[in-house]
């Protein structure tokens, strides 16, 4: 029986988005993603590393836009990957496209000053 390793990036759906993102106690970085998206696959290890490094201070989740169109439409997601940072249930920063960890940390630091660029 193969062992599975829990990913530090939590999958969310239209049904779980409110509880996992909007009602979260921590800031939440949402990746709006799709299976067919090459840049989404490229940024996946970056998000996993960020989620691991910032565990307990930042929650990182992924929502597949093809299977969860209501949430994607509600947040006007037009491109994948789109990264949206939510704090207290409100979107405070939106970034479009893949990027290296250092750049992502720099961009997040404007809203989350405790995140230092690596």
TrEMBL record:
Pfam families assigned to the protein according to its UniProt record, in alphabetical order: Thioredoxin (PF00085)
UniProt GO BP: cell redox homeostasis
Disulphide bridges: 37-40
UniProt-recorded Gene Ontology molecular function terms: protein-disulfide reductase activity
Name of the protein in question: Thioredoxin
Source species: Streptomyces mobaraensis (Streptoverticillium mobaraense)
Signal peptide segment: none
Keywords: Disulfide bond, Electron transport, Redox-active center, Transport
Gene3D superfamilies: Glutaredoxin (3.40.30.10)
Assigned GO CC terms: cytosol
InterPro entries: Thioredoxin (IPR005746), Thioredoxin-like_sf (IPR036249), Thioredoxin_CS (IPR017937), Thioredoxin_domain (IPR013766)
Origin: domain of life: Bacteria
The UniProt record lists the keyword Transcription regulation: no
Thioredoxin domain boundaries: 1-113
Similarity section: Belongs to the thioredoxin family.
